[in-house]
Design a protein that fits this description.
Radius of gyration: 13 Å
Number of strands: 4
Structural class: alpha+beta
Strand order of the largest sheet: 1-2-3-4
Strand content: 25-35%
Order of helices and strands: HEEEEHH
Number of domains: 1
Number of helices: 3
Distance between the termini: 12 Å
Largest sheet: 4 strands, antiparallel
């Protein structure tokens, strides 16, 4: 459970990157056209311990890592380093 200070920090980090938190380890990322947004979610860990993410954009629907996932990973890593998420 996050405390109010952690929640405020997470919101600030996301705002700086133009990303909206959407639950724990999930984000809404603006489309490059600016006409919508995509949901990116952490879905688990792979066999080698790598993080697995999914995005509902066209590339993500075909199993490819997209720029939305890369943006969410960068924000998630910054949050983890700042707030201490695992």
């Amino acid at each position: 459970m996050r405390n109010p200070e952690q929640t405020a920090t997470i919101s600030e980090i996301c705002r700086e990157h133009g990303i909206t938190p959407d639950g724990e380890h999930a984000y809404r990322v603006q489309s490059s056209s600016g006409n919508g947004e995509y949901v990116v979610r952490f879905v688990g860990r792979g066999d080698c311990g790598e993080t697995l993410w999914e995005c509902n954009c066209l590339a993500g629907q075909h199993g490819r890592e997209c720029k939305h996932v890369r943006a969410a990973i960068a924000v998630n890593n910054e949050i983890k380093d700042t707030v201490g998420w695992e």
